[in-house]
Amino acid sequence: MARFNERLSRIAFGGDYNPEQWDEEVWAEDMRLMTEAGVSMVSLGIFSWAKVEPRPGEYDFGWVDRIFELLSANDIAVCLATMTASPPPWLARLHPETLPMLPDGSRLWPGGRQHYCPSSPEYRRYATRLVAKLAERYGDHPALAMWHIGNEYGCHVPECFCDVSAVAFRGWLRERYGDLDTLNDAWSTSFWSQAYGDWDEIFPPRSVPAFHNPAQRLDFSRFSSDELLACYLAETEITNRVTPNVPVTTNFVGAWRRINTMKWARHMDVVSYDSYPDPHDPEAAADSALAYDLMRSLRDGQPWLLMEQAPSAVNWRERNGAKPRDVMRLWSWQAIAHGADSVLYFQWRASRGGAERFHSGMVPHAGENTRIHREIRQLGNELKGHSALVGTRQTCDVALVIDWDSGWAVEGTSHPSDDVRLMDAVAAHHRPLYDANVAVDFVRPGADLSKYKLVVVPNLYLVSEADARNISDYVHGGGTVLMSFFSGIVDEYDRVHLGGYPAPFRELLGLWIEEFWPLPRGGSTGISFDGDLSALGSDTATRWSEVIRTEGAETLATFAGGDLDGEPAATRHRFGDGEAYYLGTRPSPERMRSLLDHLRQRTAVAPTLADLPDGVQARTRVGEDGTAHHILLNHTARPVTVTVDGAAVELAAHDVAVVTAKA
Amino acid sequence: MARFNERLSRIAFGGDYNPEQWDEEVWAEDMRLMTEAGVSMVSLGIFSWAKVEPRPGEYDFGWVDRIFELLSANDIAVCLATMTASPPPWLARLHPETLPMLPDGSRLWPGGRQHYCPSSPEYRRYATRLVAKLAERYGDHPALAMWHIGNEYGCHVPECFCDVSAVAFRGWLRERYGDLDTLNDAWSTSFWSQAYGDWDEIFPPRSVPAFHNPAQRLDFSRFSSDELLACYLAETEITNRVTPNVPVTTNFVGAWRRINTMKWARHMDVVSYDSYPDPHDPEAAADSALAYDLMRSLRDGQPWLLMEQAPSAVNWRERNGAKPRDVMRLWSWQAIAHGADSVLYFQWRASRGGAERFHSGMVPHAGENTRIHREIRQLGNELKGHSALVGTRQTCDVALVIDWDSGWAVEGTSHPSDDVRLMDAVAAHHRPLYDANVAVDFVRPGADLSKYKLVVVPNLYLVSEADARNISDYVHGGGTVLMSFFSGIVDEYDRVHLGGYPAPFRELLGLWIEEFWPLPRGGSTGISFDGDLSALGSDTATRWSEVIRTEGAETLATFAGGDLDGEPAATRHRFGDGEAYYLGTRPSPERMRSLLDHLRQRTAVAPTLADLPDGVQARTRVGEDGTAHHILLNHTARPVTVTVDGAAVELAAHDVAVVTAKA
Amino acid sequence: MARFNERLSRIAFGGDYNPEQWDEEVWAEDMRLMTEAGVSMVSLGIFSWAKVEPRPGEYDFGWVDRIFELLSANDIAVCLATMTASPPPWLARLHPETLPMLPDGSRLWPGGRQHYCPSSPEYRRYATRLVAKLAERYGDHPALAMWHIGNEYGCHVPECFCDVSAVAFRGWLRERYGDLDTLNDAWSTSFWSQAYGDWDEIFPPRSVPAFHNPAQRLDFSRFSSDELLACYLAETEITNRVTPNVPVTTNFVGAWRRINTMKWARHMDVVSYDSYPDPHDPEAAADSALAYDLMRSLRDGQPWLLMEQAPSAVNWRERNGAKPRDVMRLWSWQAIAHGADSVLYFQWRASRGGAERFHSGMVPHAGENTRIHREIRQLGNELKGHSALVGTRQTCDVALVIDWDSGWAVEGTSHPSDDVRLMDAVAAHHRPLYDANVAVDFVRPGADLSKYKLVVVPNLYLVSEADARNISDYVHGGGTVLMSFFSGIVDEYDRVHLGGYPAPFRELLGLWIEEFWPLPRGGSTGISFDGDLSALGSDTATRWSEVIRTEGAETLATFAGGDLDGEPAATRHRFGDGEAYYLGTRPSPERMRSLLDHLRQRTAVAPTLADLPDGVQARTRVGEDGTAHHILLNHTARPVTVTVDGAAVELAAHDVAVVTAKA
């Protein structure tokens, strides 16, 4: 695979560029404004398929040639899209079966975007034919810096339930299970008379009476992510062959969606992410931090690309707030602080028409004499001075375990409580670390954990025996784990691990769970901390309670009041050379922070910088020569003073500072 | 028909047993545990179709034979399912038209359960072929105690709107109406240009613009219940023929659903019920009491079977609470108190996989050393000592009138207010009697009412002239009726009885209703009690008000405030030798209880036991020899003392006591 | 076109008459009751298609002939429906493709009403064949007073997404755009790869992934209104040819729906409206006032017909309140006060069956001895004394600009905020004028505005250059405009007017909007009034804020608090000889009233009558001879005294008075 960043010597700045929406006289102004704004790279052609192939097999690349020349002449690199994200209307007319089908059997039609069945051989055939044309035509162009494969895969159509998908699903299952007996066993089809006697009896999990078979539903999630990945791979097979030195990426959207980004990232040269925090949401920066930590983790800390963000407002929420003064800069720097090597936007020039005409652009409808464009220009030029950051990395002492299979499974059908949601659990455990300025890696449950002082396992409902052993071994070898309720419950096929919940972690935790007692909607339970944690006093916990039977574990908190009064609610267990903490409920955010503080002290995990004022975030990126770049982010609306290495740094409201400490 | 209970000499204890989910080595342990737990009967094969007929016409009964032998050897009776509740995947592949269709034309697919069109000849053909095989193979087996026909008919797919159903619906209508003129008149098709000129123009009430024709909608409810009944009868026709001495049942689910259980019960040897009160719901026991009274009433007081309940939590609510300590025993006894001759569960062993893997089992995932299993074992052995209860009955002085046609109609389309709901009205009138420990029968409006001291008619929107006369005659002959608003409004075809609402009850009630004034959403109206009821003072009533014109009735309450200030809100009318009370609004629960107290005193209706503490329920079952078994249920979380026949009985929290008084 | 009202010499009184629901013996009683109640006109045959054409091509007009004779003999005029609103069941059987299709591809079926695709050639063929029969048969009948074409067009099925509609849509687009290049440009299809290479690639805006193309969605709204209009015109083409002297109408329903009533009204001899205010809604009278002002405006002040209202309750809300005593009379007179020349009802006799059996009738189920019928009879006879009102008109100094294209566009897809809704904005600006008893005309943005002292432009999101110039010219020539935010943003194709929002009004307003800052859901912002408006003090505004850059405009209010603190929130700009006020947010209802008071004083706009008590409404209708009829409406539940021309007029609760002042 191609090494990304060997061509880019600075923090990439720019965005999606859709010149086909404008007369060519506008292009000249674009070049001037891009140059003035320090634009170094644009993503070209994301939605250009219908323009370059107006009729099947008829190509018009003239305008692409011209814009390539223009960009090249202005020293702007091209991240060239494969243009396959939104098929032209003619595809649906020629092949109506390429239109996606919902679980109820209805189709999605052209007129929006992404209206294709991921398993469609016809879609893939037309798409790869175009990619081959593009690779041949522009592969040698000096401006070509990167391939942008598709766009936001699965954002609107993560799954298709049509007959073509059914055939593909059967093929995928055949590969996974070999024979029907194995599948019937894995899917527990002896329940509800679901045993399959022929592969052709199997369908996607369309609308059913009652509840879906959970293993079928889970495998369909895996399959659907794999089918989109196959679309991506069909295209990269071409680009990698024709242009082996041009790196490839595709832009993820949403930290937790239908795409198993951990699996995908192996096939990418660099991870890209589209980030759209809601300016109306006071928690937006914390949510971004989580997503950025995840993106950085997908390729083991390799710098990633902020491929899209909005210059200000978006158009697709019910109410689309603007980013107040300086917030766009602050949030751009936040991405860099979390490991991004680019600040890119959707889109260069605000569209005049189409569904996203009210999405802000780097050049607003009113043109360059606007606050938004001034902030863009200012940031673009500011970033030129920070090229030393490119390629720098950060080290984390804490890992958060996340797993797509487990997340899909726990949000599937028929569980003790709908209040157990993957991102809710992950965020509840990430937030106290974010608040405390502790950098966090996300890791797979089977990852090498040895380098971490603390591993947090928010809600690992599904776990294989091997992965469970990996976590246990880590603790046995001296590590510390914090695990929360409803972990270790089922195997890869959503079948309960027998032997007392959570069987694969029973020895590790020194306890078993006799019964789940999820709380009613909006309900809560008192808990009371004890022993080492008695300073935490009493608390009101939510979502869950359960009957814990300790087998060696020490009780750190008990339920207070109700039927479980006095029963353990949180425990600690010495296991080998390490310790395993367990939470049988969800404490309040305040107590979650206290608990993580306790764990950090116990494991000697230091924050990025100590004694930061509330609302000020710091991340440190370290170069290969050991130079530390402290990036300070003032998320508050008031000026603050931060002390770094003994020196006072003043930050205005929403201000950013970079303090470099030579190694 | 076969007489149920001639084989069973004790309260049946056990549950659904799905051994096909487990390796045969587990079966031996099952036998040991069942024996220790006092299991006397299991329901076998509910979802075994795909297992015994893996491909159409290929049968594998070996494992059923073996489990039959094993159960027989352990003296456990078999309630054998006909296995037709969930067709194997091959049926949908062979006959996609057997899949149910929703009103919008979309289909429901395999992957859940109950995915068949009730009218499908193909489904019935394959189902009855299997039933014949089962009856021939196991009809003579000594362990066979009962047939469990299908399972929870109509629970998920009470109606199908497909073309096959359309043909069946036309046949049903042809039988009902004979010719189209009669149908057009009954359906009032002169409105909205709906007159039919050909039977083939008639469809199920699929999605329409505006509102459905109410008579079409009502007839489709009747038809759909009848079609499911036809499925049931097609199977019992076989079992009754092959095994005339084996009683048949099917398990109802939900007190008020799409199945006309009053009509079905005529075709059953014993009524069965699946009871799933929500442990998170503080009103759960009152709701169960209502359902149990209904089940007992379906076959005129004949003891019924609690066919399913959960040992603790279920899996299909959004949040599934556990049954706290002793509650499962308490609620089991509540069913017995209301006339059940069994305590059966879904299911014996908690599934490892499949949609209900988190439904509690009599043997939890963690095995026998668990609270849940200990409570099961304890109860199973306790019940062995109460065989004298089997076959005993209870006598009721109060009847509550309920009618499926009326309920379907009033919850249909285009009414004065959506706040008039059958079960809301029934529960509002049942609850005060439950609270007062008065046993209640449910009866059809055309039933013989002469044995009751008080008849309550909560909301009998639809009534035939004959049924109205039956109620009037009862009062004329000396009975007492309490009738609530919006009763006697339409005939069997949802056509208004002309002549002043409620025309068929106008003479009985001594009044007519000039106008309906339903209250706004969440609205209320003051009412003020008068005369005999002046002790009830003033109250806040909800849901409904109306303009009542008395014609002989005496006013017992008036509206207070608003446009109807001073107008009658409740009345009493002397009619023949009896009295008819009428409520033109819904008083508060407190006043409903006072009103029922008043009526009980006036009609000399005594509670089961007098002076019970709040939250303590009592029911008395009487044997043929006159022995009275008082069953005392402490629904509260505190210990209470109850005096029965002068003797003090102590009950711990959630405790149960049985006090037997020889005749 | 025929002149309406030349036949009618009094305020038409009556309603929908559906004698086919009743035996003919009832008809005689109908005639007696109609005569006693002063009924002068009935609408006949609205839903009679299936009755007169029970099988395709077989007609049965006998009963229509008889009822025509009966009505004629009783001197009751007939408004004859073309009977095409609800096709008979045989049409769907013969031509299933006539059934409407929803965006998800599902169909709507017979069993309700209006189940036809508006573009269906088959529907139109059968419909016009029937209309021709009717026109030939009854065109010369002396009782025929008017044609009632269809019924409530588009009420339930305003749009159809089927393949037949797709073909028609392409034809409509071809006519509008000529060639695909023009369409692709207008629809901005270069975004999201939507460029069309063939007309057959275009579909209705069915379900899509992500958001619809806004121009496609907007054109489909125009097309759908036009297709229904084409149905209407296909019928009037016949009636106008056969009976050139019989006026035609069709009844609109809802002030703002999918039908462009401003466009339709050109093709009608008289505007008709179905008015169903909710008796449970305390704001009902204000909403009616708005709708009635609109109806009067559709044909430039020509009196209109109140074609339907309920005698009391309707049947189709979730809870259907009755009209309290005297309210039906009050609300009937309100329609007359706003220019209606009729008081008509749905329907004469309450149906016994069918979906609207609980809709109140002029003759209730209980017959004539009822409050409802007495009020009907009283009003019918009262109106006989007010024939002088027929044909009188009213003059307005204030115009409210409304535009269907703009309304459809702003409620379409992907905007800064879903809180910008046409009727919300219109009502917010109409209400203060209603409260102040100022009569208001609704006008198109391109209308002649010269006669108005004040023009209010609530939210004119979409505006053509020409229409924008029309409004600017009005101000330049001395007029006064109040314009609210998000006006002048896009052109006829939903493409942003470039050049700084709102480009077409920038010169007029003396400002440009740099950024939209819509408020969060339920959010608000402080504003503080200044200068001339400083008496209004501070206020809490909702829905919207924005960054206003003045270019000559004077600031009248500023935002207070938040990121926009101190920035302009409202402005005034001298432009030519006139003034343009601008609101960049939505002030509270109280301040909206103060602001309109200020504007009325500044433009010398007088109320209908001065010094009316709160809740008392007055409207003045003036005859050709200058006679002024002041209609006084007491919307309150208490008696009031009103002074008119120095004389005191007493009105009881909910009372009405007409005071005539000779010219």
Which SSEs are present, and which pair or pack?
3 copies of one chain form a homotrimer.
Chain A: E1 12-17, H1 24-37, E2 41-44, H2 49-52, H3 62-73, E3 77-81, H4 89-94, H5 121-138, E4 144-148, H6 163-177, H7 180-186, H8 214-242, E5 248-249, E6 251-253, H9 261-264, E7 272-274, H10 284-298, E8 305-308, H11 327-337, E9 342-345, H12 371-383, E10 398-401, H13 404-410, H14 422-435, E11 440-443, E12 454-457, H15 465-476, E13 480-484, H16 506-509, E14 511-516, E15 524-529, E16 538-542, E17 546-550, E18 554-560, E19 568-575, E20 578-583, H17 589-603, E21 616-622, E22 628-634, E23 640-644, E24 647-651, E25 656-661
Parallel strand pairs in A: 1-2, 1-9, 2-3, 3-4, 4-5, 6-7, 7-8, 10-11, 10-12, 12-13, 13-20
Antiparallel strand pairs in A: 14-17, 15-16, 15-18, 18-19, 19-20, 21-22, 22-25, 23-24
Helix pairs in contact in A: 5-8, 10-14, 14-17
Binding site for Zn(2+) (chains A, B, C): 117, 160, 162
Binding site for substrate (chains A, B, C): 113, 151, 316
Domain Glycoside hydrolase family 42 N-terminal (chains A, B, C): 16-384
Keywords:
homotrimer; 663 residues; TIM Barrel; Rossmann fold; 9-stranded mixed beta sheet; 6-stranded parallel beta sheet; 17 helices; globular
